[in-house]
Design a protein that fits this description.
The complex is a heterodimer of chains A (481) and B (132). By secondary structure, chain A is α+β, with helices and mostly antiparallel strands. In chain A, 32% of the residues lie in helices and 26% in strands. Chain A has helices spanning 35-43, 46-53, 112-115, 119-129, 144-153, 155-160, 188-194, 239-260, 277-312, 392-398, 412-418, 421-430, 440-445, 454-463, and strands at 8-11, 14-17, 29-32, 59-73, 75-84, 89-90, 102-111, 207-216, 229-236, 272-273, 323-328, 330-339, 342-351, 354-355, 374-377, 385-390, 401-402, 434-436, 467-480. In chain A, α7 (188-194) packs antiparallel against α8. Chain B has helices spanning 16-31, 52-70; strands spanning 7-13, 41-48, 72-82, 86-95, 109-110, 116-120, 123-131. The radius of gyration of chain B is 14 Å and the shape is globular. In chain B, α1 (16-31) packs parallel to α2 (52-70). Chain B is built from two helices and seven strands; from the N terminus they run βαβαβββββ. With 132 residues, chain B is an alpha+beta fold. Classes of the chains: A alpha+beta (481), B alpha+beta (132). The A-B interface holds A 44, 46, 70-74, 77, 96-98, 133-136, 189, 192-193, 195, 202-204, 240, 243-244, 246-247, 250-251, 254-255, 266-268, 270, 408-414, 438-439, 441-442 and B 2-7, 31-32, 50, 53-54, 57-58, 61, 65, 67-71, 73, 96, 98, 103-106, 108-109, 111-115, 129, 131-132.
Chain lengths: 481, 132
Amino acid sequence: MGFLDTMEMVDDFTWEIPVGARDGMLVPGVVFADRELLEKADRDNALQQVANVACLPGIVGASMAMPDIHWGYGFPIGGVAATDREEGVVSPGGVGYDISCGVRLLKTGLAHTEVKGRLREVIDLLNASVPKGLGTRGRLRLERREMERLMRDGAAELVARGIGWEEDLEAMEEGGCYPGADPAKVSDRAFARGRDQVGTLGSGNHFLEIQVVDEARPPAEKMGLFPGQVVVMAHSGSRGLGHQVCSDYIETMGAALGRFGYSLPDRQLVCAPVRSREGQDYLGAMACAANFAMCNREAITHWVRECFEKVFKAGARELGMELLYDVSHNLAKAERHEVAGGARELIVHRKGATRAFPGSRPEVGRRFAETGQPVIIPGDMGTCSYVLVGSEEALRKSFGSTCHGAGRAMSRKAARKQVRGEELLGRLEKKGIMVRADRLAGLAEEAPEAYKDVGEVVRVCEGAGLSRVVARLRPLAVMKG
Amino acid sequence: MEHTSDVGIRAYGGSMAEAFENCALGMMSLMLEPERVKPRHRAELSARGRDGGSLLVAWLSEILFKVEAEGWAFNSFGVVSCNGAAVAGWGAGEPLDAARHGLKMEIKAPTYHLLELGEAGGRWAAQVIFDV
């Protein structure tokens, strides 16, 4: 704490931690925030973590943090760090335990007026149909070979089984399949933890939310988003499989750290050279977990479509339930970026940060070439969520990255002390937001006041030029994991 | 203990083994209500580590695996041997039951962040932050 004193203001939304602010920094730290958000980050050690990440071998440009930065472990949540693919390292802590934890937005052709009277029916059916919470099993039973195919081939494998639509694949990063996935690099324990979890929501901050498009501005119409339209947002990740992959490789790299000769400021920053066996194995396993996460969200999407079909007595295609986009928050991706006038092959770690590419990047695909890649920013239960698009400026400033959410401002314990679950439930219902949660204490932990103001975070992202708002989404009904 | 994004526990014991037992119970109490679990069966638990800290992380990961992959709910733990590089013991419990066990949060993993394990004046203290 007190790290703010070492920082220099670059402009209204950009602050720099100079090299030398702590021993071992190889590049500066850059935090995209306004003064208020920066002070919040300083109160909980997150800025120190930005400086720690700047010590990673082979880091390129700067250790960065998005406006939703908060205290994590090793990396701050909201941290972005690019390392050189030849001389740099890959760090499982720079991705996090929930590999490819992410958000997707499913459109509908339904207006709020059509859904209003059926909302209770829909959310109750969703609550009964999408498994959530500790100890739940998914509705799919997969054999080891089937799991391997799913990890290698990604969402296309589920679509081939009739779970999800072919055109969904175009609306996912990497077409629903991360390259380089190698199931042989995934431990038996990770297989066992993930085996029954495809299509399960999880718990904590994971949720399903029915929302209405509250405001839309160009190019929203090109994305098929209109004011008054009902949409469904899903937030989930790679479940036990991804958590175990991260745990496994933190141990593997921790054991090999002496051989690499690295001295790191934080044990949770453990890493290996990208070109080492450990680094390559991790990237192969991480891609498997990322594919699993996209399959998980694809299966959830399928159950959501089924629920809407039952309630509205029409096919999901007829109801216009197309996937807008699926974005991941926790990944290390091989990307090519311009650095100091030259193209470089990098591994971009985004931990609690979202890729925000402009339409000019080939990765974005034809569908979003004109608009830029959609970025989906969930709010908390009581406030709005946002759809943004990536920008050329983000490419220049942050390796094409933006924020991933509001970011926590309060610990779970503090939230429980301040908010009573029942009171929160009543307050949200009064605002017209239906909530389904198995545990009221868990609901209190996720109370809107436990988070920063997502509107403010998004405003700073726009101010810094990292992405641009195209739609604001207001919650109607929430199902908490 | 408080942590902005995650949840942590501090546990104590008269020996390293006892601190490990109490850490395990602390972790379970974040996930469910151990007093509602009946000790019908015992599961063997073992883990290896490079040092005390990594051994503690491995021990808790082993228990987490039993809960998530094998569907156990535990209400007590015993450490039979613990030498700083390897730990062996058991957990007593029964199959996880959402209706009876007062399920709370899922834990993704014990982390190395702010991990502490040490002894002072014959008392062992451990601190672990969990990613939840």
